[in-house]
Amino acid sequence: MKYDLIIVGMGPAGITAAIYAKRSGLNVLCLEKSMPGGLLNYIDNVDNFPGETNISGSDLAFKMFEQLKSLEVDYKTKTVERIIIENDLKKVIISDDEYYYTKTVIIATGRSPKKLGLENEKELYGKGISTCAICDGALYKDKVVAVVGGGNSAISEAIYLSNICEKVYIIHRRDALRADDKLVKCLDKKNNIEIIYNSNITAIDKENDRIKSITINDKNKIDIACLFTYIGFVPMTSFVNTLNILDENGYILVDCNNETNIKGIFAVGDIVKKDIYQIITSCGEGAIAAINASKYIEGE
Ligand code: NAP
Predict the structure, then answer these.
(1) Which of 231, 251, 277, 279, when mutated, tests ligand 1's pocket best, judged by the most ligand atoms within 8 Å of its CB?
(2) Which of 3, 64, 67, 185 has the most neighbouring CB atoms within 10 Å?
(3) CB under 8 Å, gap of 24 or more: what pairs does 57-66 form?
């Protein structure tokens, strides 16, 4: 079977691309390795998406996915191992025995949370280290937790946790936060959040296979029930690292049509090298790429 378009990743960018592509008559397949909606599922509140005054990220993701299903877009839960070019077609490879040919590809695989890289960290994810306050915050009701990072994610999730937990430490490596003013003002009103500036977590200590404490700047230990890490993201582009479409940090380079330097391969959303990473801009890029994929096919 040969597709007009394969979309890899079903976050807001990929789903929007699928909606536009299907409505323009393309034969589309969407591939997603886990949950439709991507990182949107982990956002507490979205209050800047037109048409939705205030909605949880997971509800918005659900609505987007419902719209995709109502258009009868073909989708599968699969992890793409590699994309290669074969003659005029793109070959999207799941395994030696499973692959799909397509005229065009839209890559929309997003980013995954960055790790601190400390001893014990990997084994303690799910045992007192988390990247999702919305998913795990309720487990730490009335307990002391810490958040590491100083960006929008760290601050908005610390605010969320302050409504559940007894106390929230924010550990930030600089002397100033980089989060938006609106969030910082909201943070200032919380009396159970303490910000520890100019500080790095240098060790994570465990007891009975769970986190016990963190060590700050090789000196002070703080006992915590959970550490929430919000220190940025790593783009999920290793499956296209032989295509020569990435920058030095692994983000995909695109032109104003969201097309890479390979004709017929587009990229959208958080895996693109750009300045603004917002749900609405990701959706816009999905629409742009789908329309240009359609034009590419017409022009063949
Ligand atoms: P981010 O803006 O990249 O911030 C990451 C934070 O982690 C920075 O404060 C950074 O410190 C710190 N950090 C990075 N590596 C670290 C390390 N190894 N150890 C300790 N700290 C480390 O990431 P983000 O906050 O997740 O935001 C990502 C994007 O999503 C942004 O564009 C953001 O605006 C957007 N976003 C928006 C909202 C919203 O409500 N509008 C909510 C969430 C996210 P430095 O400051 O020293 O670099």
Answers:
(1) 231
(2) 64
(3) 57/134, 58/134, 60/12, 60/279, 61/11, 61/12, 61/35, 61/36, 61/37, 62/37, 64/12, 64/15, 64/16, 64/36, 64/37, 64/40, 65/10, 65/15, 65/36, 65/37
Q: What is the DSSP letter of 176?
A: S
CB 257 within 8 A of CB 222: no
Residue carrying the six token digits 């920058």: 247
Global pTM reads 0.79
Q: Within a 10 A sphere around the Cβ of 114, how many other Cβ atoms?
A: 14
- From first to last of its 300 residues, the chain has per-residue pLDDT tens of 799 999 999 999 999 999 999 999 999 999 999 999 998 988 877 888 999 998 999 999 999 999 999 999 999 999 999 999 998 899 999 999 999 999 999 999 999 999 999 999 999 988 999 998 988 899 999 999 999 999 999 999 999 999 999 999 999 999 999 999 999 999 999 999 999 999 999 999 999 999 999 999 999 999 999 999 999 999 999 999 999 999 999 999 999 999 999 999 999 999 999 988 889 999 999 999 999 999 999 997
* Residues in the chain, overall count: 300
* Catalytic pick among 44, 59, 136, 205: 136
Report which secondary-structure segment, H or E, holds 265: strand 265-267
Structural domains of the chain in order of their starting residue, each with its CATH number: 2-112+233-299 (3.50.50.60), 115-229 (3.50.50.60)
Q: Is the CB of 121 under 6 A from ligand 1?
A: no
Q: Which two tokens stand for residue 295?
A: 């034009």
186 is catalytic: no
Nearest CA to ligand 1 atom 15: 231
Query: Which run of H or of E encompasses 296?
Result: helix 279-299
- Which residue's CA is the nearest one to ligand 1's atom 32? 277
